[in-house]
Sequence to fold (157 residues):
Amino acid sequence: MLIRLIPAAAMSLAVCVFSGAAAAQTWNPEQQEIWKVEEQQWKLEAAKDASWIDTMVHPNLRYWSDDPMPRGKESLKKWSRIGYEDDTTREYEIFPISATITGNVAVVQYRYMVAFENYKKERDTVTGRYTDVLIKENGRWLFLAWGGAEDPEEGTD
Fold:
C-alpha cells in the first residue's frame, strides 16, 4: 500500500512546485507584458544597474520590505547604492504566482531565490516573496508599491 502512495505524493509535490510556472505560461498578453517588466527589473538589479529606479519606478513609490518603515523612491536610490557596494548577486530566479490587472493597475505576486556573496566573500542563498503594484502611465508599467521579505531561516520563529 505504501508503494502506491509514493508516486501519488511525488506527483502532488511536482504539481505544487511547477504550478507557478504553468500559471505564467497561460497568462494573457498583458499579464505577460507585466511579467517581462518584473524580469527586467530583477536583471538590472542583479547587474547593479540602478537605472531601473529612474526608468521603472513611479515618483510616488512606497515600499516596505525588511525595513523599519515604508520608504519612497529617494530612499531606494540612497540605500541601493550601499547594497550594490556590499553584495553581489551570483544567481537568481523568480517564480510567478499571479498577476491581476484592473484598468491601469496591476498586482503581481511571486516568489524568489537569490544566491549572493557579501563583501566578506561569504555566500548564502535566500528565498522570499513579493507583492508588487504597478501602474500604467503613458503606455509603460511603473512600480508604484511593493511589499515582501525573505523567508525566515529554518529554526527561527
